[in-house]
Description:
The protein is mainly α. The chain has one domain (15-287). The chain has helices spanning 2-35, 41-63, 72-95, 98-105, 108-119, 126-143, 152-177, 182-201, 211-237, 240-246, 249-262, 268-287.
Amino acid sequence: MRIRIVATQQNAMPAFWMIVSCFLFACMGVCVKLASGAFSTGEIVFWRGLVSMAMMAGLALSRGIELRTPHWRMHLSRSLSGSTALACYFFAIGALPLATAVTLNYTSPLFVALLLALFLGERLNALASGAVLMGFTGVVLLLRPTLQPEQWLGALAGLGSGAMASVAYVSLRELGRKGEPEVRTVFWFSLMTTATGAAWSALGPLHLPDVGQLATLLGVGLFGGLAQLAMTRSYRYGRTVVSANLSYATVVFASLFAMLLWDEIMPASAWLAIALIVAGAILVSLSTRKPA
């Protein structure tokens, strides 16, 4: 009995860390939305990476974790795809209602299922294939009735962030299997994010933040870095598709924040679309479970 209880707790911990990361990512989205009125996407990406990189360097130093890694190719793949996804995501948040941008970003579980099937040989049965189709039907329903013509670039960026994030998530799984510490993984991602943001910011005018704006930018990095740690731990110890599907809790948190802060009330059709996407994601995870 004791062994069964311990095993249950161990199986629940990846889910717990993913829910924690979802709440923190929603907080980060709020800070990005607040900052997008005064700063370019590149500047926000830069601050996101800089603050997180400093946090991870401090944690590594306090824990005696070496930041040098023998798996630099895997870190490069994860960091490039992750920083690209982040830049697309921040652009989408600035162009779209918060809940819509977050939902489009979190199409990544559907892309994860396709990626695992197409490139890593994990078979999708009929139920999983139908679930993926259901999820993308929800995406179409979410976009058509709610977006204005000038918002479609933001919508494409949101979908692009979901697709690129799926590559990053699979890389996270592989880094976890190699035994890479979460702090090291997040540090290299943050370093790439800082470089990406700096390069993008250099293309336009730079803005010096005041005290309030600085707090918002620091919040982007702080919430993002902590969320990244929690998410990386979830992917390291959990199943990729299951952890990715649980990330949809961010949509719920973001929707609540949007209603409270900006009175963004989504129509019934949008909630139906989100329900289809979440249901498709859950069915994907259930249909790909393997016997214990």
